[in-house]
């Protein structure tokens, strides 16, 4: 096999390193028992369609039969309540689709820890042990008991209060006895399913945070001068794409609530810009946090490498100065003839690479993977009160 710190070029030689964020937990087993998840595969698209149909179609049929689909006073219609459509047709399906994204992305990225040489043969047993520990944590029933408990408590409380914007319009009054079929369907099916999926993804974000924190404590074979400016760990940033559909889903629901206020309650999108920006920032931070534990080993490596490579460059340049400026006989020091260091310009480039190394494992790629999906729905709300037709007309005239 050779030195464990060398990159393994033969993918078949990479040992099994598997961990799924979605397979094996209580939610996965319950769905498999209900035949929502097939015995082979995840059945992602099938479940996305089923969940969307089960949540939205009964409400749509009820609204049509009761004359509350598109005809009504003000916002007293199903069509007017964007939040319901955002939950049923966008957020819930996307959070299911995100499970497939996670299942496709995680195995190759975890395997690349070994392929890239960050995890050596000596470190591999510890790496596999940490994956197993996180898998056992994922499979525990307690987190899901908490998720179901919080969901039931939240749905029950909101039903008793009866003041949710998405529910009030469906009912005949403020008492529980006045809740219609549509109201009960939203309270007992739509909101709980959305809440369970949301909390499940927040728990998975915590699992990834824990996993990367434990991996960061291992003696990884990092290279401070690596051209990826992350000591060879830049591939981890692609894990942010796991949360891209979830970030868009949550942002769509939040933006739908703001859009309803703008369209039907006279709120100003420009006056709400602080709330829009704050909401987008909060969602972005939540789903970028799982990558931050690796900032600990990266920061520690950069602090030590700055001194180590600084000493190396200083020693090299001092000998060059003595030979060519002071014209001293310094013999044939090995460092001046080392091909891996090269001339002065090359060794300076190595030091610059170390100096420019990122201490936080975030780049434009990972930030855009979260910020763009979050920002798009918020920008739509802001655009509701912009004279888009006039703006597009002026742009067309300028270009034609």
Mind explaining what this structure looks like?
Keywords: Membrane, Transmembrane, Transmembrane helix. The chain crosses the membrane at residues 48-70, 82-102, 141-161, 235-255, 275-296, 365-383. The chain has 400 residues and is an all-alpha fold. It has a domain at 20-221. 64% of the residues lie in helices and 0% in strands. The protein has helices at 26-33, 44-65, 82-115, 124-139, 142-161, 165-168, 181-216, 244-264, 273-288, 295-324, 334-337, 344-355, 364-383, 388-399. Helix 10 (295-324) packs antiparallel against helix 12. The longest helix is centred in the middle third of the chain and has 36 residues, at 181-216. The termini are far apart.
* Count of individual helical segments: 14
Question: Strand content of the residues, in percent?
Answer: under 5%
- The SSE string, one letter per element, is HHHHHHHHHHHHHH
* Main β-sheet description: none
Structural class: mainly alpha
* End-to-end separation: 64 Å
Give the overall pLDDT as a whole number: 86
Name the poorly predicted regions.
1-12
Overall shape: it is: elongated
Radius of gyration: 28 Å
Helix content: 55-70%
Number of E-type strands: 0
Keywords: Membrane, Transmembrane, Transmembrane helix
Transmembrane segments: 48-70, 82-102, 141-161, 235-255, 275-296, 365-383
């Amino acid at each position: 096999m050779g030195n464990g710190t060398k990159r393994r070029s033969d993918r078949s030689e990479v040992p099994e390193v598997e961990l799924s964020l979605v397979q094996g937990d209580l939610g996965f087993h319950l769905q498999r028992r209900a035949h929502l998840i097939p015995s082979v595969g995840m059945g992602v698209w099938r479940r996305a369609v089923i969940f969307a149909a089960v949540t939205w179609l009964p409400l749509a049929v009820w609204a049509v039969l009761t004359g509350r689909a598109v005809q009504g006073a003000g916002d007293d219609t199903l069509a007017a309540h964007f939040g319901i459509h955002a939950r049923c047709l966008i957020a819930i399906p996307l959070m299911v689709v995100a499970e497939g994204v996670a299942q496709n992305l995680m195995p190759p990225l975890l395997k690349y820890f070994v392929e890239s040489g960050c995890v050596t043969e000596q470190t591999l047993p510890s790496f596999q042990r940490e994956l197993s520990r996180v898998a056992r944590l994922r499979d525990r029933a307690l987190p899901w008991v908490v998720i179901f408990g919080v969901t039931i408590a939240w749905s029950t409380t909101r039903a008793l209060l009866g003041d949710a914007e998405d529910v009030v319009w469906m009912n005949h009054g403020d008492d529980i006895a006045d809740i219609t079929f549509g109201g009960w369907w939203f309270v007992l099916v739509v909101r709980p399913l959305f809440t369970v999926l949301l909390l499940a993804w927040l728990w998975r974000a915590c699992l990834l945070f824990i996993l990367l924190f434990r991996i960061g404590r291992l003696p990884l074979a990092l290279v401070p001068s690596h051209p990826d400016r992350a000591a060879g760990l830049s591939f981890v940033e692609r894990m942010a794409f796991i949360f891209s559909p979830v970030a868009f889903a949550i942002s769509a629901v939040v933006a739908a609530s703001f859009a309803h206020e703008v369209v039907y309650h006279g709120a100003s999108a420009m006056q709400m810009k602080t709330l829009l920006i704050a909401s987008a920032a909060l969602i972005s931070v939540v789903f970028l946090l799982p990558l931050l534990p690796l900032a600990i080993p990266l920061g520690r490596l950069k602090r030590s490498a700055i001194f180590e490579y600084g000493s190396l460059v200083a020693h090299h340049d001092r000998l060059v100065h003595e030979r060519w400026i002071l014209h001293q006989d310094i013999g044939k020091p090995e460092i001046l003839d080392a091909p891996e260091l090269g001339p002065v310009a090359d060794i300076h480039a190595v030091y610059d690479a170390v100096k420019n190394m990122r201490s936080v494992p975030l780049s434009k790629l990972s930030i855009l993977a979260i910020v763009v999906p979050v920002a798009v729905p918020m920008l739509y709300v802001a655009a509701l009160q912009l004279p888009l037709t006039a703006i597009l007309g002026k742009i067309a005239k300028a270009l034609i």
